[in-house]
Amino acid sequence: MQLENILEIANGMKAKGESFAIATVVRTVAATAAKAGAKALIGANGAISGGWIGGGCARSAVLKAAAACLADGQPRLLSVQPEDVLTAQGVRSGDAKDGIQFAKNACPSKGTMDIFIEPYLPKPHLAIYGASPVAVALAEIASRMGFYISAVDDCLAEDLHLIDLPHPVNYIVIATQGAGDYAALTAAMNIECNYIALVASQKKAAVLTAKLKDSGISGNRLASLHAPAGLDLGAITPDEIAFSIVAELIKLRRRGHRHGAIF
Question: pLDDT band at 256, cuts 50/70/90?
């Protein structure tokens, strides 16, 4: 029943594009409240949304480890042990050794629990505005790189802020390459997103940025605009330009993930 409940909650959170972690007790020694196989689902808010992994002896350590998993995308093996057992192994609470993170069990039961915590992160959402060759190539390449794609044709550019996108948007690329550029940019500035890129020449990008500033868009908001879009790879063709944009998105997405990464 616990597993069915967790799977139902997990599927609902996936459909909403929400992050969560699943903690599974994989081993116990001596007296512990939860036994091997017990599971809990921890949401991005730091609360247990379903399942059970025991009481306060392990809960705080599991929640802390789950938060770290969601922050860097890395799974963790957590071992909650009595302090004397930790000392005998030459480790302290908070230490990590041989791929295991250790925490102290201060409860009278003095049991040991090993818990595997695995993060589930939604695909980063890329909204592409335009139907240009770059936009088409970008949708194809980014999809292969694990991005969730929302494609919006230029004809809707003036109403972009009204579109009910299915998940929170992480990245926006405007590849209209035509008369809808300014309308698309203006609308994109009204969408909660930390990265907005414009496919345009440096000269055109400068003109449009100045126009946005004159319209009252704040400097902080304009700081989220990357124009021209993509890393400077010397790209010329639509496929090359799209590739340079995806390269920049991957760079931003993986920032901080490689330190101590195990996948």
Answer: low
Asked if 71 and 86 touch (Cβ cutoff 8 Å), the reply is: no
CA of residue 53 relative to chain centroid, distance: 25
Domains of the chain: 2-120 (no CATH), 125-253 (3.40.50.720)
Q: Which of 41-45, 82-86, 165-169 has the highest mean pLDDT?
A: 41-45
Selection from 164, 141, 106 nearest residue 242 by Cα = 141
Whether 9 and 19 have beta carbons less than 8 Å apart is answered as no
Residue 142, amino acid? A
Crossing angle for the helix pair 181-188 and 202-214, nearest 10 degrees? 50
Kindly report, residue by residue over 166-217, the tens digit of the pLDDT.
Answer: 667 889 999 987 767 888 888 888 887 778 899 888 898 888 889 888 888 8
